[in-house]
Structures
1.
Amino acid sequence: MDRLGRRDRKGAPDTFDAAGYAALLRRLREEEYDEVVYAPGFERVLEQPVAGAVPVPPAARLVVTEGNYLLLGTGAWARVRPLLDEVWFCVLDEEERLRRLIARHVEFGKSPEEAAAWVGRSDRRNAELVASTRGAADLVVPVSAVPGRSRPAESADRDAAP
């Protein structure tokens, strides 16, 4: 990120390899792949992606993936949505979302002031972009504010895709 001059934009859509992600999803959708497909993971302690961290065996019948930009219709991200059978959009109370983001940044080394500034600057812009894609989701799932973890609420409303 430093080499590319994107450290201050970390988490923005163009800081991910969306084309590589789409290629991975395409490979997983192939009817007959007869070898393990390796997906990347992310190591928060290192703040780096880790190639080949998640093995997906040929016998896998269901693959669940997550990400902020699955519904983004621009750039290489536009290749992702057609490769997914369903996309659920999880909605968390704004105050709780901010609390969790700041706590995560503090846990991984930022001071509370640095964390709040980052969340108010970079994370806020990214969250606004993500929120604008909600209408393209197959299902909108309200998430309860259980400290330390997320749980789907008992009822979820269906929003019609545009």
Note: The mean pLDDT is 84.
2.
Amino acid sequence: MKAEKLLIVEGLSDKKRIQKVLSEQVAIICTNGTVSSYRVEELLYPFEGYDLYVFMDADDSGDKLRQLFIREYPEAIHLYTEHLYGQVEKTPLRKIAEILLRADFKVHPEFLLY
């Protein structure tokens, strides 16, 4: 049986935007800004054994959070929005769908149409 997926994002607006695109059930946790290693461990504890994906903004705060995950959870798979958009919440839904699809998430096909 394949492990469940856990997606870590910065904020609630990122989570809502991603949920629009996904066509599968995925646990999504918001860090709500800067967090400590201890806080991340608390957030992730209920999801032990899940495949961990990190999708942060392409800005300083996103980079700091991403570095924390790289250091503490080297097995995590990192998803990147383009610097052009800066934030996940400002990334077009089509681009989010493409990013998620490349990471083997199931997405609604209408978001892949050009």
Note: The longest helix spans residues 60-72.
3.
Amino acid sequence: MDDASVAAVGKLTEALETVERARGHLYSFHQLTGSADATLQEAVAGLRDAGHTDLADALEQDLVGRNVLQGRWTYQVVEEYDDGYWSVFREHEQRVRDALLDGRRHLYEASMKDRERTHGRPGHAAVPD
């Protein structure tokens, strides 16, 4: 495997890792929005219990259960991202690794580790014991 191919696949994998992080943030967005909606419902109940039914009704009718994007709750955003961009990105990264690196992962990092570690020193082993 030539160095240019290993470096290029390393960049592709780095891009996928960034997409994975973005996906994690999307799941955080999903969970935080759901949590906010549940807390909002508690606030609506509290306003209603305190006798502020008009304010509670307005919040309940306009905000509780509202779409975050046109026609979508957050789970639908997550599903669309997973089924579209994320899945396609992963498939392409895997196909390129299979074609150029026999499917091996993190080959760029493995070669960097071998270059940068101090052979024979404690804490610098090539692989786990």
Note: Residues 3-110 form one domain.
4.
Amino acid sequence: MATANSLLSLLDDSVLAAPSWRIRSSQRRRGGSVAVVRMRRAERRRRGSQRSDVRRKVRTLKKLIPNCESMGVERLFQETAEYIAALQRRVKVMQTVVDALATGSDDE
């Protein structure tokens, strides 16, 4: 009696795959097998979702950085770097003020 594995080995991929009528004729002409066509579709969906994620993140960044709503991505990144540097300078100044006030109050 044949085992399940030996029976499956007799079947080729075309029998196990989706019916050929579900594959467009243009895809058959390009030489795409069912598995290849499915992989291509999945890759397109994945790339599309990645692009929408990037667009969403860029929109969010434009909202966070002042006066950047109408900039291109390259200029937006430059402005973001400059804005972060300016914020870091502000923090250093504020820390200096806090330290000066803390040591000044100890003298009293």
Note: The first helix runs from residue 4 to 10.
